[in-house]
Please model this.
Amino acid sequence: MVNRMVMNVAIDMPAGLMETENEKNTSVYPEVSVGVPLVASPKMSMRNVDVFYGEKQAIYNVNVDIGQNEVIAMIGPSGCGKSTFLRSINRMNDTVDSCKVTGQLTLDGEDIYAAKMDPVALRARVGMVFQKPNPFPKTIYDNVAYGPRLHGLASRRAELDEIVETSLTRAGLWTEVKDRLDQPGTGLSGGQQQRLCIARAIAISPEVILMDEPCSALDPIATAKIEELIAELSKNYTIAIVTHSMQQAARVSHRTAYFHLGHLVEVNETEKVFTAPEHQLTEAYITGRFG
Amino acid sequence: MDKLNLDQHISKQFNDDLEEIKTSMLEMGGLVEKQVADAVKALVDADSGLAERVIEVESQIDEMEMDIDETSITLIARRQPAASDLRLVIAVTKTIRDLERIGDEAQKIAKMAIKLSEEGNAPRGYTEVRHIGNCVRKMLNDSLDAFSRFDAVSAIATMHEDKEVDMDYKTALREMITYMMEDPRSISRSMNILWALKSLERVGDHAKNICEQVVYLVQGRDIRHTKLD
Model:
Protein backbone atom coordinates (compact mmCIF):
# COMPACT_ATOMS: atom_id res chain seq x y z
CA MET A 1 0.00 0.00 0.00
CA VAL A 2 2.86 2.35 0.68
CA ASN A 3 4.14 1.57 -2.78
CA ARG A 4 1.07 3.11 -4.28
CA MET A 5 1.78 6.36 -2.55
CA VAL A 6 5.12 6.84 -4.20
CA MET A 7 4.66 5.24 -7.57
CA ASN A 8 3.66 7.25 -10.57
CA VAL A 9 -0.08 6.94 -10.62
CA ALA A 10 -0.62 7.35 -14.34
CA ILE A 11 -0.70 3.71 -15.31
CA ASP A 12 -1.91 2.45 -18.66
CA MET A 13 -4.54 -0.21 -18.63
CA PRO A 14 -4.07 -3.27 -20.78
CA ALA A 15 -5.07 -2.28 -24.30
CA GLY A 16 -8.55 -3.22 -25.37
CA LEU A 17 -9.84 -4.10 -21.94
CA MET A 18 -12.53 -1.45 -21.93
CA GLU A 19 -13.32 -1.30 -25.59
CA THR A 20 -16.45 -3.38 -25.48
CA GLU A 21 -17.89 -1.03 -22.90
CA ASN A 22 -16.85 2.19 -24.40
CA GLU A 23 -15.53 2.94 -27.83
CA LYS A 24 -14.01 6.28 -27.04
CA ASN A 25 -10.58 5.27 -28.22
CA THR A 26 -11.15 6.52 -31.70
CA SER A 27 -9.87 9.98 -32.44
CA VAL A 28 -11.09 10.03 -36.04
CA TYR A 29 -14.46 11.37 -37.08
CA PRO A 30 -17.29 8.92 -36.75
CA GLU A 31 -19.04 7.92 -39.99
CA VAL A 32 -22.31 8.94 -38.41
CA SER A 33 -22.52 11.52 -35.61
CA VAL A 34 -22.63 9.73 -32.28
CA GLY A 35 -25.36 10.40 -29.73
CA VAL A 36 -28.86 11.55 -30.65
CA PRO A 37 -28.62 13.80 -33.72
CA LEU A 38 -32.22 13.11 -34.76
CA VAL A 39 -35.43 13.75 -32.86
CA ALA A 40 -39.10 12.88 -33.29
CA SER A 41 -41.14 15.51 -35.20
CA PRO A 42 -38.34 18.05 -35.69
CA LYS A 43 -38.87 21.76 -36.43
CA MET A 44 -35.91 21.76 -38.78
CA SER A 45 -34.27 18.81 -40.36
CA MET A 46 -30.90 18.67 -42.11
CA ARG A 47 -29.82 15.63 -44.13
CA ASN A 48 -26.54 14.92 -45.90
CA VAL A 49 -25.56 18.56 -45.81
CA ASP A 50 -22.29 19.52 -47.48
CA VAL A 51 -21.15 23.13 -47.71
CA PHE A 52 -18.39 24.34 -50.01
CA TYR A 53 -16.62 27.66 -50.36
CA GLY A 54 -15.43 27.37 -53.97
CA GLU A 55 -13.34 24.20 -54.08
CA LYS A 56 -12.95 24.01 -50.36
CA GLN A 57 -15.39 21.85 -48.42
CA ALA A 58 -16.40 23.39 -45.09
CA ILE A 59 -19.11 20.97 -43.95
CA TYR A 60 -19.12 17.21 -44.48
CA ASN A 61 -22.34 15.21 -44.60
CA VAL A 62 -24.11 16.64 -41.59
CA ASN A 63 -27.33 14.99 -40.42
CA VAL A 64 -29.13 16.65 -37.56
CA ASP A 65 -32.59 17.71 -36.42
CA ILE A 66 -33.62 20.70 -34.38
CA GLY A 67 -36.65 19.94 -32.24
CA GLN A 68 -39.65 22.18 -31.67
CA ASN A 69 -38.94 24.66 -28.83
CA GLU A 70 -35.52 23.18 -28.40
CA VAL A 71 -32.36 25.11 -27.61
CA ILE A 72 -29.52 23.43 -29.45
CA ALA A 73 -25.97 24.65 -28.92
CA MET A 74 -23.26 24.22 -31.52
CA ILE A 75 -19.73 24.17 -30.20
CA GLY A 76 -16.30 23.43 -31.60
CA PRO A 77 -12.91 24.99 -32.22
CA SER A 78 -12.53 27.96 -34.56
CA GLY A 79 -12.94 26.97 -38.17
CA CYS A 80 -14.92 23.85 -37.34
CA GLY A 81 -17.84 24.98 -39.50
CA LYS A 82 -20.41 25.67 -36.80
CA SER A 83 -21.12 29.23 -37.96
CA THR A 84 -21.09 28.16 -41.61
CA PHE A 85 -23.63 25.50 -40.76
CA LEU A 86 -25.79 27.92 -38.81
CA ARG A 87 -25.75 30.38 -41.69
CA SER A 88 -26.80 27.74 -44.17
CA ILE A 89 -29.99 27.01 -42.29
CA ASN A 90 -31.52 30.40 -43.04
CA ARG A 91 -29.68 30.85 -46.34
CA MET A 92 -27.46 33.64 -45.06
CA ASN A 93 -24.76 31.96 -47.12
CA ASP A 94 -26.67 32.93 -50.30
CA THR A 95 -24.91 36.26 -50.04
CA VAL A 96 -21.51 34.59 -50.41
CA ASP A 97 -21.04 33.93 -54.12
CA SER A 98 -18.60 31.06 -53.81
CA CYS A 99 -20.72 29.24 -51.25
CA LYS A 100 -22.59 26.12 -52.29
CA VAL A 101 -24.90 24.14 -50.03
CA THR A 102 -26.04 20.63 -50.96
CA GLY A 103 -28.25 18.13 -49.19
CA GLN A 104 -31.72 18.45 -47.76
CA LEU A 105 -32.62 21.21 -45.33
CA THR A 106 -36.23 21.52 -44.29
CA LEU A 107 -38.33 23.76 -42.08
CA ASP A 108 -41.59 22.08 -41.05
CA GLY A 109 -40.92 19.65 -43.88
CA GLU A 110 -40.52 22.39 -46.53
CA ASP A 111 -37.29 22.41 -48.49
CA ILE A 112 -35.65 25.73 -47.65
CA TYR A 113 -33.44 25.62 -50.74
CA ALA A 114 -36.38 24.96 -53.09
CA ALA A 115 -36.66 27.34 -56.05
CA LYS A 116 -40.04 28.58 -54.85
CA MET A 117 -38.74 29.41 -51.37
CA ASP A 118 -38.25 33.16 -50.99
CA PRO A 119 -35.10 33.73 -48.90
CA VAL A 120 -36.50 36.94 -47.44
CA ALA A 121 -39.66 35.17 -46.31
CA LEU A 122 -37.52 32.33 -44.98
CA ARG A 123 -35.42 34.71 -42.91
CA ALA A 124 -38.60 36.17 -41.46
CA ARG A 125 -39.37 32.66 -40.18
CA VAL A 126 -35.79 31.86 -39.24
CA GLY A 127 -34.37 35.00 -37.64
CA MET A 128 -30.80 35.66 -36.71
CA VAL A 129 -28.86 37.44 -33.96
CA PHE A 130 -25.22 38.16 -34.59
CA GLN A 131 -22.04 38.27 -32.57
CA LYS A 132 -21.74 42.04 -32.44
CA PRO A 133 -24.90 43.93 -31.63
CA ASN A 134 -25.83 45.68 -34.87
CA PRO A 135 -28.81 47.96 -34.29
CA PHE A 136 -29.85 50.13 -37.22
CA PRO A 137 -28.87 53.81 -36.91
CA LYS A 138 -32.48 54.57 -36.05
CA THR A 139 -34.53 55.09 -32.93
CA ILE A 140 -35.15 52.21 -30.55
CA TYR A 141 -38.77 52.17 -31.70
CA ASP A 142 -37.88 52.06 -35.38
CA ASN A 143 -35.33 49.33 -34.89
CA VAL A 144 -38.06 47.03 -33.65
CA ALA A 145 -40.77 48.37 -35.98
CA TYR A 146 -38.59 48.02 -39.07
CA GLY A 147 -39.31 44.35 -39.74
CA PRO A 148 -43.05 44.45 -39.06
CA ARG A 149 -43.34 47.48 -41.39
CA LEU A 150 -41.32 45.75 -44.09
CA HIS A 151 -43.40 42.61 -43.90
CA GLY A 152 -46.67 44.53 -43.49
CA LEU A 153 -47.49 42.95 -40.15
CA ALA A 154 -49.31 45.99 -38.76
CA SER A 155 -51.97 48.08 -40.46
CA ARG A 156 -52.37 50.72 -37.78
CA ARG A 157 -50.00 52.62 -35.55
CA ALA A 158 -51.59 51.10 -32.45
CA GLU A 159 -50.88 47.59 -33.73
CA LEU A 160 -47.29 48.53 -34.44
CA ASP A 161 -46.97 50.03 -30.94
CA GLU A 162 -48.20 46.77 -29.52
CA ILE A 163 -45.73 44.69 -31.51
CA VAL A 164 -42.89 46.97 -30.38
CA GLU A 165 -43.92 46.74 -26.76
CA THR A 166 -44.43 42.99 -26.83
CA SER A 167 -41.12 42.39 -28.57
CA LEU A 168 -39.18 44.64 -26.22
CA THR A 169 -40.90 43.02 -23.24
CA ARG A 170 -40.04 39.54 -24.44
CA ALA A 171 -36.47 40.64 -25.00
CA GLY A 172 -36.39 41.87 -21.41
CA LEU A 173 -35.71 45.45 -22.46
CA TRP A 174 -39.07 47.20 -22.18
CA THR A 175 -38.75 48.62 -18.67
CA GLU A 176 -35.29 49.92 -19.45
CA VAL A 177 -36.23 51.77 -22.66
CA LYS A 178 -39.94 52.51 -22.54
CA ASP A 179 -39.34 56.18 -21.73
CA ARG A 180 -36.82 56.75 -24.49
CA LEU A 181 -38.15 54.88 -27.51
CA ASP A 182 -37.37 57.89 -29.70
CA GLN A 183 -33.68 57.82 -28.88
CA PRO A 184 -31.14 56.10 -31.13
CA GLY A 185 -30.66 52.36 -30.59
CA THR A 186 -26.93 52.84 -30.94
CA GLY A 187 -26.94 54.86 -27.71
CA LEU A 188 -27.75 51.80 -25.59
CA SER A 189 -25.15 49.72 -23.78
CA GLY A 190 -23.75 46.63 -25.54
CA GLY A 191 -25.99 44.24 -23.65
CA GLN A 192 -29.04 46.42 -24.26
CA GLN A 193 -28.17 46.70 -27.94
CA GLN A 194 -27.98 42.92 -28.18
CA ARG A 195 -31.37 42.58 -26.51
CA LEU A 196 -32.66 45.25 -28.92
CA CYS A 197 -31.43 43.06 -31.78
CA ILE A 198 -33.24 40.10 -30.24
CA ALA A 199 -36.40 42.26 -29.94
CA ARG A 200 -35.97 43.20 -33.59
CA ALA A 201 -35.61 39.54 -34.53
CA ILE A 202 -38.73 38.47 -32.64
CA ALA A 203 -40.84 41.44 -33.80
CA ILE A 204 -41.63 39.62 -37.02
CA SER A 205 -42.73 36.48 -35.13
CA PRO A 206 -40.07 34.07 -36.36
CA GLU A 207 -40.37 30.37 -35.62
CA VAL A 208 -36.67 29.76 -35.24
CA ILE A 209 -33.99 32.09 -33.90
CA LEU A 210 -30.38 31.51 -34.83
CA MET A 211 -27.78 33.09 -32.59
CA ASP A 212 -24.17 33.34 -33.67
CA GLU A 213 -22.09 33.93 -30.54
CA PRO A 214 -24.62 36.42 -29.21
CA CYS A 215 -22.72 37.11 -25.98
CA SER A 216 -19.09 37.16 -27.03
CA ALA A 217 -19.02 40.97 -26.99
CA LEU A 218 -20.88 41.27 -23.69
CA ASP A 219 -19.90 41.40 -20.03
CA PRO A 220 -21.00 38.63 -17.64
CA ILE A 221 -24.07 40.49 -16.36
CA ALA A 222 -25.33 41.27 -19.86
CA THR A 223 -24.51 37.67 -20.80
CA ALA A 224 -26.55 36.33 -17.90
CA LYS A 225 -29.51 38.46 -19.03
CA ILE A 226 -29.29 37.12 -22.59
CA GLU A 227 -29.03 33.55 -21.27
CA GLU A 228 -32.05 34.09 -19.07
CA LEU A 229 -33.82 35.45 -22.13
CA ILE A 230 -32.90 32.37 -24.17
CA ALA A 231 -34.58 30.15 -21.57
CA GLU A 232 -37.67 32.38 -21.67
CA LEU A 233 -37.74 32.56 -25.48
CA SER A 234 -37.49 28.79 -25.86
CA LYS A 235 -41.08 28.56 -24.63
CA ASN A 236 -42.21 30.19 -27.86
CA TYR A 237 -39.33 29.73 -30.28
CA THR A 238 -36.86 27.14 -31.44
CA ILE A 239 -33.31 28.31 -30.89
CA ALA A 240 -29.96 27.30 -32.34
CA ILE A 241 -26.97 29.00 -30.76
CA VAL A 242 -23.33 28.93 -31.79
CA THR A 243 -21.04 29.69 -28.90
CA HIS A 244 -17.37 29.63 -28.00
CA SER A 245 -18.25 29.45 -24.34
CA MET A 246 -18.71 25.86 -23.34
CA GLN A 247 -20.16 26.91 -20.02
CA GLN A 248 -22.74 28.90 -21.92
CA ALA A 249 -23.66 25.86 -24.00
CA ALA A 250 -23.88 23.87 -20.77
CA ARG A 251 -26.13 26.50 -19.17
CA VAL A 252 -28.60 27.29 -21.90
CA SER A 253 -29.03 24.34 -24.24
CA HIS A 254 -31.02 21.13 -24.22
CA ARG A 255 -28.78 19.39 -26.71
CA THR A 256 -25.22 20.17 -27.69
CA ALA A 257 -23.67 19.50 -31.08
CA TYR A 258 -19.90 19.23 -31.37
CA PHE A 259 -18.32 20.14 -34.72
CA HIS A 260 -14.73 19.31 -35.59
CA LEU A 261 -13.12 20.39 -38.87
CA GLY A 262 -16.43 20.37 -40.71
CA HIS A 263 -17.66 17.09 -39.25
CA LEU A 264 -20.52 16.82 -36.81
CA VAL A 265 -18.89 14.48 -34.31
CA GLU A 266 -21.49 14.20 -31.58
CA VAL A 267 -24.95 15.47 -30.74
CA ASN A 268 -26.20 14.59 -27.30
CA GLU A 269 -28.23 15.73 -24.35
CA THR A 270 -26.23 18.65 -22.95
CA GLU A 271 -26.07 17.00 -19.55
CA LYS A 272 -24.45 13.97 -21.13
CA VAL A 273 -21.99 15.95 -23.23
CA PHE A 274 -20.64 17.74 -20.18
CA THR A 275 -20.51 14.79 -17.81
CA ALA A 276 -19.79 11.78 -19.99
CA PRO A 277 -19.48 12.56 -23.69
CA GLU A 278 -19.48 9.59 -26.02
CA HIS A 279 -16.74 10.59 -28.42
CA GLN A 280 -13.08 11.09 -27.63
CA LEU A 281 -12.91 14.27 -29.72
CA THR A 282 -15.80 15.84 -27.81
CA GLU A 283 -14.15 14.87 -24.56
CA ALA A 284 -10.82 16.34 -25.63
CA TYR A 285 -12.42 19.62 -26.66
CA ILE A 286 -14.64 20.25 -23.67
CA THR A 287 -11.97 19.31 -21.16
CA GLY A 288 -9.36 21.50 -22.84
CA ARG A 289 -7.05 18.69 -23.91
CA PHE A 290 -5.11 18.45 -27.11
CA GLY A 291 -7.50 17.27 -29.79
CA MET B 1 -11.38 4.86 -22.53
CA ASP B 2 -8.08 3.25 -21.61
CA LYS B 3 -6.92 6.11 -19.44
CA LEU B 4 -8.05 9.57 -18.58
CA ASN B 5 -5.10 11.45 -20.09
CA LEU B 6 -4.83 13.65 -17.04
CA ASP B 7 -1.61 15.12 -18.35
CA GLN B 8 -3.02 16.16 -21.72
CA HIS B 9 -4.62 19.50 -20.91
CA ILE B 10 -3.56 22.60 -22.74
CA SER B 11 -3.17 24.15 -19.30
CA LYS B 12 -0.26 22.52 -17.47
CA GLN B 13 -1.47 23.93 -14.19
CA PHE B 14 -4.77 22.13 -14.68
CA ASN B 15 -2.87 18.85 -15.23
CA ASP B 16 -0.98 19.45 -12.01
CA ASP B 17 -4.09 20.36 -10.02
CA LEU B 18 -5.94 17.21 -11.06
CA GLU B 19 -2.89 15.05 -10.45
CA GLU B 20 -2.51 16.62 -7.04
CA ILE B 21 -5.98 15.78 -5.75
CA LYS B 22 -5.64 12.23 -7.04
CA THR B 23 -2.23 11.72 -5.48
CA SER B 24 -3.35 13.25 -2.17
CA MET B 25 -6.38 10.97 -2.16
CA LEU B 26 -4.19 7.91 -2.69
CA GLU B 27 -1.86 9.05 0.08
CA MET B 28 -4.82 9.39 2.38
CA GLY B 29 -5.94 5.92 1.25
CA GLY B 30 -2.53 4.50 2.13
CA LEU B 31 -2.71 5.97 5.59
CA VAL B 32 -6.26 4.69 6.12
CA GLU B 33 -5.21 1.20 5.05
CA LYS B 34 -2.44 1.30 7.61
CA GLN B 35 -4.91 2.44 10.27
CA VAL B 36 -7.18 -0.54 9.63
CA ALA B 37 -4.24 -2.94 9.67
CA ASP B 38 -2.88 -1.46 12.91
CA ALA B 39 -6.29 -1.45 14.58
CA VAL B 40 -6.84 -5.12 13.80
CA LYS B 41 -3.31 -5.96 14.94
CA ALA B 42 -3.78 -3.99 18.14
CA LEU B 43 -6.95 -5.91 18.86
CA VAL B 44 -5.72 -9.44 18.21
CA ASP B 45 -2.33 -8.80 19.86
CA ALA B 46 -3.94 -6.96 22.81
CA ASP B 47 -1.49 -4.15 22.08
CA SER B 48 -3.03 -1.08 23.69
CA GLY B 49 -0.02 1.07 22.79
CA LEU B 50 -0.61 0.47 19.09
CA ALA B 51 -4.34 1.14 19.61
CA GLU B 52 -3.52 4.49 21.18
CA ARG B 53 -1.44 5.42 18.17
CA VAL B 54 -4.32 4.54 15.83
CA ILE B 55 -6.55 6.90 17.80
CA GLU B 56 -3.96 9.67 17.59
CA VAL B 57 -3.47 9.35 13.83
CA GLU B 58 -7.22 9.60 13.21
CA SER B 59 -7.18 13.40 13.39
CA GLN B 60 -4.52 13.45 10.66
CA ILE B 61 -6.96 11.66 8.34
CA ASP B 62 -9.68 14.20 9.11
CA GLU B 63 -7.27 16.97 8.17
CA MET B 64 -6.36 15.27 4.92
CA GLU B 65 -10.04 14.98 4.04
CA MET B 66 -10.59 18.67 4.62
CA ASP B 67 -7.48 19.64 2.66
CA ILE B 68 -8.45 17.58 -0.38
CA ASP B 69 -12.00 18.90 -0.18
CA GLU B 70 -10.74 22.44 -0.19
CA THR B 71 -8.40 21.81 -3.12
CA SER B 72 -11.25 20.19 -5.04
CA ILE B 73 -13.61 23.09 -4.37
CA THR B 74 -10.95 25.55 -5.53
CA LEU B 75 -10.38 23.48 -8.63
CA ILE B 76 -14.10 23.47 -9.45
CA ALA B 77 -14.33 27.22 -8.88
CA ARG B 78 -11.29 28.05 -10.96
CA ARG B 79 -11.41 25.48 -13.75
CA GLN B 80 -15.04 24.41 -14.15
CA PRO B 81 -13.97 20.87 -15.00
CA ALA B 82 -16.15 18.94 -17.45
CA ALA B 83 -16.60 15.33 -18.53
CA SER B 84 -13.84 13.01 -17.21
CA ASP B 85 -12.19 15.85 -15.29
CA LEU B 86 -15.47 16.59 -13.54
CA ARG B 87 -16.00 12.92 -12.83
CA LEU B 88 -12.51 12.68 -11.36
CA VAL B 89 -13.08 15.59 -8.98
CA ILE B 90 -16.47 14.23 -7.92
CA ALA B 91 -15.13 10.69 -7.51
CA VAL B 92 -12.22 11.97 -5.41
CA THR B 93 -14.44 14.01 -3.10
CA LYS B 94 -16.79 11.08 -2.58
CA THR B 95 -13.95 8.62 -2.09
CA ILE B 96 -12.23 10.68 0.59
CA ARG B 97 -15.50 10.77 2.46
CA ASP B 98 -15.55 6.98 2.49
CA LEU B 99 -11.89 6.92 3.48
CA GLU B 100 -12.59 9.24 6.37
CA ARG B 101 -15.40 6.97 7.52
CA ILE B 102 -13.08 3.96 7.29
CA GLY B 103 -10.69 5.93 9.47
CA ASP B 104 -13.51 6.36 12.01
CA GLU B 105 -14.17 2.62 11.96
CA ALA B 106 -10.45 1.93 12.55
CA GLN B 107 -10.62 4.26 15.51
CA LYS B 108 -13.63 2.38 16.91
CA ILE B 109 -11.78 -0.92 16.54
CA ALA B 110 -8.79 0.60 18.34
CA LYS B 111 -11.06 1.66 21.22
CA MET B 112 -12.42 -1.88 21.44
CA ALA B 113 -8.82 -3.15 21.41
CA ILE B 114 -8.03 -1.03 24.46
CA LYS B 115 -11.11 -2.27 26.33
CA LEU B 116 -10.37 -5.87 25.44
CA SER B 117 -6.75 -5.62 26.49
CA GLU B 118 -7.92 -4.34 29.87
CA GLU B 119 -10.29 -7.29 30.28
CA GLY B 120 -7.54 -9.75 29.44
CA ASN B 121 -7.40 -13.36 28.14
CA ALA B 122 -9.86 -15.83 26.59
CA PRO B 123 -9.40 -14.59 23.03
CA ARG B 124 -12.54 -16.01 21.49
CA GLY B 125 -13.61 -14.37 18.23
CA TYR B 126 -10.10 -13.20 17.36
CA THR B 127 -9.87 -15.65 14.47
CA GLU B 128 -12.96 -14.07 12.97
CA VAL B 129 -11.62 -10.56 13.48
CA ARG B 130 -8.36 -11.53 11.81
CA HIS B 131 -10.12 -13.24 8.93
CA ILE B 132 -12.67 -10.50 8.19
CA GLY B 133 -9.95 -7.92 8.79
CA ASN B 134 -7.83 -9.51 6.08
CA CYS B 135 -10.76 -9.65 3.67
CA VAL B 136 -11.72 -6.00 4.02
CA ARG B 137 -8.11 -4.83 3.94
CA LYS B 138 -7.72 -6.61 0.63
CA MET B 139 -10.95 -5.04 -0.63
CA LEU B 140 -9.79 -1.59 0.40
CA ASN B 141 -6.38 -2.14 -1.17
CA ASP B 142 -7.91 -3.41 -4.40
CA SER B 143 -10.42 -0.56 -4.58
CA LEU B 144 -7.65 2.03 -4.27
CA ASP B 145 -5.51 0.18 -6.80
CA ALA B 146 -8.45 0.18 -9.20
CA PHE B 147 -8.81 3.92 -8.66
CA SER B 148 -5.14 4.62 -9.27
CA ARG B 149 -5.22 2.61 -12.50
CA PHE B 150 -8.70 3.81 -13.59
CA ASP B 151 -9.64 0.14 -13.82
CA ALA B 152 -13.43 -0.30 -13.76
CA VAL B 153 -13.23 -4.04 -14.43
CA SER B 154 -11.23 -4.84 -11.33
CA ALA B 155 -13.37 -2.36 -9.34
CA ILE B 156 -16.45 -4.41 -10.21
CA ALA B 157 -14.62 -7.63 -9.32
CA THR B 158 -13.74 -6.14 -5.94
CA MET B 159 -17.35 -5.12 -5.29
CA HIS B 160 -18.37 -8.75 -5.50
CA GLU B 161 -16.13 -9.56 -2.55
CA ASP B 162 -18.38 -7.52 -0.28
CA LYS B 163 -21.02 -10.24 -0.36
CA GLU B 164 -18.55 -12.75 1.10
CA VAL B 165 -17.60 -10.30 3.82
CA ASP B 166 -21.26 -9.87 4.71
CA MET B 167 -21.72 -13.65 4.90
CA ASP B 168 -18.60 -14.10 7.01
CA TYR B 169 -19.82 -11.35 9.29
CA LYS B 170 -23.17 -13.08 9.80
CA THR B 171 -21.44 -16.38 10.51
CA ALA B 172 -19.16 -14.71 13.05
CA LEU B 173 -22.19 -13.03 14.61
CA ARG B 174 -23.88 -16.40 15.14
CA GLU B 175 -20.74 -17.82 16.69
CA MET B 176 -20.38 -14.93 19.08
CA ILE B 177 -24.02 -15.35 20.12
CA THR B 178 -23.32 -19.02 20.82
CA TYR B 179 -20.35 -18.09 23.03
CA MET B 180 -22.48 -15.63 24.93
CA MET B 181 -25.20 -18.20 25.51
CA GLU B 182 -22.67 -20.77 26.65
CA ASP B 183 -20.99 -18.41 29.06
CA PRO B 184 -22.92 -15.29 30.08
CA ARG B 185 -19.80 -13.94 31.81
CA SER B 186 -18.31 -13.45 28.33
CA ILE B 187 -21.11 -11.18 27.18
CA SER B 188 -19.33 -7.89 27.77
CA ARG B 189 -16.15 -9.13 26.04
CA SER B 190 -18.07 -10.68 23.18
CA MET B 191 -19.99 -7.48 22.63
CA ASN B 192 -16.72 -5.60 22.21
CA ILE B 193 -15.55 -8.15 19.66
CA LEU B 194 -18.89 -7.79 17.89
CA TRP B 195 -18.53 -4.01 17.65
CA ALA B 196 -15.11 -4.50 16.11
CA LEU B 197 -16.51 -7.04 13.63
CA LYS B 198 -19.31 -4.66 12.74
CA SER B 199 -16.76 -1.91 12.09
CA LEU B 200 -14.79 -4.20 9.79
CA GLU B 201 -17.94 -5.11 7.92
CA ARG B 202 -18.57 -1.38 7.44
CA VAL B 203 -15.05 -0.96 6.06
CA GLY B 204 -16.02 -3.48 3.37
CA ASP B 205 -19.11 -1.40 2.54
CA HIS B 206 -17.01 1.74 2.20
CA ALA B 207 -14.50 -0.05 -0.02
CA LYS B 208 -17.43 -1.09 -2.19
CA ASN B 209 -18.53 2.54 -2.40
CA ILE B 210 -15.05 3.48 -3.60
CA CYS B 211 -15.32 0.84 -6.33
CA GLU B 212 -18.63 2.37 -7.43
CA GLN B 213 -16.87 5.71 -7.77
CA VAL B 214 -14.18 4.11 -9.92
CA VAL B 215 -16.84 2.78 -12.30
CA TYR B 216 -18.45 6.22 -12.43
CA LEU B 217 -15.10 7.86 -13.05
CA VAL B 218 -14.06 5.53 -15.86
CA GLN B 219 -17.35 4.76 -17.56
CA GLY B 220 -19.60 7.65 -16.56
CA ARG B 221 -22.17 5.16 -15.20
CA ASP B 222 -23.75 5.52 -11.79
CA ILE B 223 -24.07 1.97 -10.49
CA ARG B 224 -25.00 2.79 -6.92
CA HIS B 225 -28.14 1.06 -5.68
CA THR B 226 -28.19 -1.30 -8.64
CA LYS B 227 -27.82 -5.05 -8.58
CA LEU B 228 -24.44 -6.42 -9.59
CA ASP B 229 -24.67 -8.85 -12.48
